[in-house]
Amino acid sequence: FKRNVKINGSRISYTDRNSYKSGEIAPEEIAQAKADIRRISSGDPMIKFTSPTRYWEMSDDEVAEKLREFIEGSGTLIGHFEDEENMYLLRAFLHGAARQYEAALEDVDRAIELGASVEAYSSRGMLNYILGKYDVALLDAERAFELQGDLATASSYAVLLAVTGNGDDALDVVDGLGLSGDEAVDALAVWSDLSGYAGREDEAWDRIAQMLEERPDDKTLLNAQCWLSGSWSYKLKDAGDICDDAVSISGHAPGMIDSRAMFKFRNGDIDGALEDLSTALEKQPGLAASRYLRGVLLLQQGDESGKKDIVEAKRIAPQIELRYSAFGLQSE
To answer: What DSSP designation does 28 have?
Structure first.
């Protein structure tokens, strides 16, 4: 597969070309080959890499070099479109992907000067969060929430309130949404996750239990209760079956397995926790939470390979160390 892209003034054009070398197909492989042809013809191609390099396995310099031409190319788009602020946001996104957070911040600042938006404020808030500028990040998260007022912006705002020592205010923000149905379930999961910052784990547990009476097999609620127990070391004798149910009902979803791993760790089952974490990462290699916790546990066991897990987890989610420090878990 090859794509050629050309920029001419304000126009972008591209052409795609697919080519392959035919070969003899063994009789036993014909059925699969026909299925593959039907899938490709339907517009659902699957690209396989023989030796992929994952983003988190590359150093900062390697990532920057991989993305250098894309960053330079995005810069040439600035000034050619009416919505110039979006071109700055595009380059900011690429700088962020290259872990060039200060450069990304400069582009987002420029985008906001040209036209403030929820996306711009959210991006700048996250960049400042990554850079440890929490008070500034909090202001931008608040602006984004005021503009949009949905669960996504409320969650970002609430997290920053919580990590800056305003746990009760964080919970009030989520409560103030007044959601119902599935959205109420998602909001309660966020509320429960942050409850420990305000010392309100009892209330979180009771709220989840009450909603579970109406939705007894809700995987999100079960997982929220499992995570509440493990992350905040709460009711550790009561959540074992809850964690197993969350994993089972979800079809062994990686996030649910990760929550159970935290619960097992808190109960002293280190081997069980490590097994769950490795399973979660086999299913979803980019799950920063599992990679970080596995690194911490390996280091606690005297296994230096845990350092690699922690470095890679922080490449995926730079803010993860601050988040897990609230649970009393640190890499050093």
So the answer is: G
